[in-house]
Design a protein that fits this description.
Blueprint: H1 2-10, H2 12-19, H3 21-49, H4 58-85, H5 88-92, H6 95-116, H7 119-122, H8 125-149
């Protein structure tokens, strides 16, 4: 594993991420914009799943917000590895990084189970509240873990 991480760090793309002020800044900015789009769409949807704003129909709101969230997630998934490869061995050695990846996997699984299982339209109110509550805990925790990762070292 160490060899693979070292290989990532030695790649020309990783070197560019480390030495290019504008390259790193651009990728980091796109990552933050992706997070903003993702979390900014997920939080109101989760609140609706928890029972807030019952006068707003869930299905059209979910279509709109899930599209925005998926766009943000794709942006984050595209830029995150670029930020990682510049300091791959350092990040991989931090337990917080593994926690962050685990939380991301849980959050995506939660969304998939809700949408691919019974679906929003046929899910019970309890199932919607559970999924919304889990999501509302996981996504902010992921953001916090990501922010701490850049500043906390073992």
């Amino acid at each position: 594993m160490e060899a693979l991480l070292s290989l990532f760090e030695q790649s020309s793309l990783a070197q560019w991420m480390r030495v290019s002020r504008w390259g790193y800044a651009s990728v980091n900015t796109l990552h933050v914009l992706g997070i903003a789009l993702l979390v900014g769409a997920i939080v109101p949807l989760d609140l609706r799943l928890l029972g807030w704003w019952r006068n707003i129909s869930l299905e059209p709101l979910a279509r709109l917000l899930q599209s925005a969230a998926i766009t943000g997630l794709l942006l984050v998934l595209a830029t995150g590895p670029l930020l990682f490869i510049g300091r791959a061995t350092e990040y991989a050695a931090q337990p917080l990084f593994l926690i962050k990846l685990s939380l991301i996997a849980l959050a995506i699984t939660n969304a998939l189970v809700l949408n691919l299982g019974s679906g929003l339209a046929s899910a019970s109110a309890l199932r919607l509240r559970i999924a919304g509550g889990i999501s509302l805990l996981l996504w902010p925790a992921i953001v916090i873990a990501g922010r701490f990762l850049g500043f906390v070292a073992d």
